[in-house]
Amino acid sequence: MGAAIETAFQDIRYAFRTLTKSLGFTAVAVMMLAIGIGINGAVFTIANAVLFKGFPLVHDNDSLLYITTNKGGVDYADFEEWRTQSKTFSGMAIARGVFSILDSPGGSPETYYTKQVTPNAFQVLGAKPILGRDFTPSDATPGAEPTVILRYNLWEQRFGKDPAIIGETVRLNGMRTTVIGVMPLGFSFPEDQNLWVPLIPPPGALTRGTFGAQYVFGRMADDANVRSARAELETIGRRLASAYPRTNQNVVPVVKDFNEFFIGKNALTIWKALWGAVGFVLLIVCANLANLLLARAAGKSREISVRMALGAGRWRIVRQSLIESLALSGLGGLAGWWIAQWSVRIYALAADGKFAAISSTGNVLDYSVDLRIVAYLIAISIGTGILFGLAPALRLSKLDINATLKDGGRGATRGIRGKHLSGLLVIGQMALAVMLLAGAGVMIRSFLKVFTADMGVDTRHVLTMDLYSPPERFASLEARISFYRDIGAHLQALPGVESVGFGNVPTYPIPRSAYELADAPIVDENSRPTVAEIVISAGYFRTLRARIISGREFSDFDGASSPAVAIVNQQFANRNWPGEVPLGKRLRLFASWEKSAPWVTVVGVVSNIVQNDATRQTFEPLVYLPDGQHGGAEQVFVRTSIAPALLADAFRRQVYAIAPDLPTPLWPLEELLDRGLAFQQRNISALFLTFAAIALLLASIGLYTVIAHSVTQRTQEIGVRIAIGGTPNDILKLVCRQGMLPLAIGLTVGLAASFAVNRLLQSMLVQVSPADPITLVVASAVLILAGTLGCLIPARRAMRVDPVVALRHD
């Protein structure tokens, strides 16, 4: 045993001595390994955070389930029934997202995304404030003093981590609110929350259809699983439908785990595709290193033959060669660890600082290193070393000792040259590279389809402001409408302003309502079609430069005392009144809890604007309602005759003069839409393009390495050809033919494989086929160009060979 350990240490010392003698080779090999292992580690770390870890600082994420209904949100009365009747959950809590304006001494008012939660929410999550206390049932009773718990980042940035903030009061939506706690650093359940407040159900909340929330989350009991929890809640749902047919008929609880609820059904497929992409890069690295080691083995053939002649066994040669390969992969793994950590940091800053992570959840994810990540990096480092080192090791162990010693290594060189193996490795590299290029190409083409899509509006020279103001600020609907119109009038009076309108940001999600047409057959209330509805002001279409096809725009006279009116888009008119004049037609819109609704008259038809579609491809039917009859719209749009950014300060001053406690976040509309543009797709496209570029570079280097080594080995042959009359063009053709053959085969194999591989990306593609011919042609051209360069450089060197020198070459 001791002798074996000593022998192993000798092999390790020998391997490191050998590597230090060839610092150039070692540096190149470690660099390539670091890139391959590093990007693999980065993708695994992000996938680990997105798919497996769940929320940071939440106890046992796997036992948490998230519950909505097939109708969307959850009625508060249903939540109470679920909570009291369920046996498969040890606890349930409710989450309701709202916006809140926080105003505190020493800081300007700002709008924060806030979660209203039941007092037991943090107990269900297994999380506690690091400062102060948790919510109690008394905090959620009507008339209780308002309380709030802060996110750590908000406490740090706005209050300077002052522990004295506990017990102090701030103004939240204009109300004095006591800060009772601060959550730990990294905790932000369930989205990018900054504040948590207790959910205080309004009077009558238990009356069905009067008060709802986004979803419920619950922790499963010890003996429960997802299937049993889902079956139990569906049973309770049927019981409630029978007991309350008016409100609960066809309402089915929908139970999902973390991945299903926050990540989405396509996320796993997308991450598999990314994983495959970085796996391809690592395989290209392995092929490159295998070729380098095969070439390097030629120089070691005489040394190995002497050792074998002196009694070294075949296994000893293989083991020593593999230890050298593992030493290289170990060094590459250490460097790759550093690359992985920095790559994840850059990704986290890009993802969490924007609208959503690659998961499209908006969650703050936990990218920290755990044992799973460490084990993965160790495993791929060892596996990589064995993968690229095994073939050269086996070839060295099969040397013809007599031929090697007799010919001084030249015959052995020819024997271990591994010409066919090197060719196969190059073919594999080219195939993998073209597959990655094709994948990146279809993703980029898809992104460009989204980026250049017609949204039905002109976003240039439009500034948008979010003027959210809590309902409790106004005594009546009329006061709210007057407030927004006052702001609009002040902005309209500024020099450089062409028009002002209030409404919703194009492409952004908006609510849907069931509707009924006055001239259509009456259908059951559960079978009514739905349509997205938007509350807008006069001037909204003019500001966004949407075209009124017939009828009129809204005006300031469309108020509460005027007849109820609506404007529909062309898509809605074509679907419901094909070939008819929509003006004067009547319809009514039902909220989810309403059984009756007033009729409204269509007074205009507007051109289509994209809504509810981040990919900007769908013009769905829309109904627009006047803010004078339905409350003020909170997003203001201002068209300017000069660059919008130049008027930003003037806009803020106008709003401040009317409401100094209102935050005024400003964005050019074009920039706002571009920032939120299909963020998931943009990230995936960028990652695929990065991996494809790395793969192309490595494959080109691999082809160059093989051709350059071949030129070196054939120096005498090339000299002879030149000496007997071979022209430079003949030598160029000779060398290029050797390189272009594996390139052509690899391109053919890669293109065929890309048809199947790109289908994994189908769910991410917009108006682009997985077999898009333009993409495949471009990918092929790029690979051919890179491969040609890889052949031309050694070919030019071969063309300059001096026959006299070449004939003396050993």
**Morphology call:** globular
Major β-sheet, in short? Answer: 6 strands, mixed, barrel
Strand content: 15-25%
Q: Helix amount, in percent?
A: 40-55%
Structural class of the helix and strand makeup? alpha+beta
Sequence stretches where pLDDT stays below 50 over 5 or more residues: 353-363, 408-417
Number of continuous helical runs: 25
What's the multimeric state?
A: single chain
- How widely separated are the two ends? 44 Å
Strand order, sheet with most strands = 3-4-9-6-8-7
Total strands: 23
Structure description:
It is a single chain. With 810 residues, the protein is α+β, with helices and mostly antiparallel strands. The chain has three domains: 12-50 and 266-451 and 679-807, no CATH class; 71-251, no CATH class; 469-662, no CATH class. Helices cover 51% and strands 15% of the residues. The protein is built from 25 helices and 23 strands. The strands form four sheets. The protein has a six-stranded mixed β-barrel. Helix 14 crosses helix 24 (773-799). The protein is globular, with a radius of gyration of 34 Å. The two termini are 44 Å apart. The model is unreliable at 353-363 and 408-417 (pLDDT under 50).
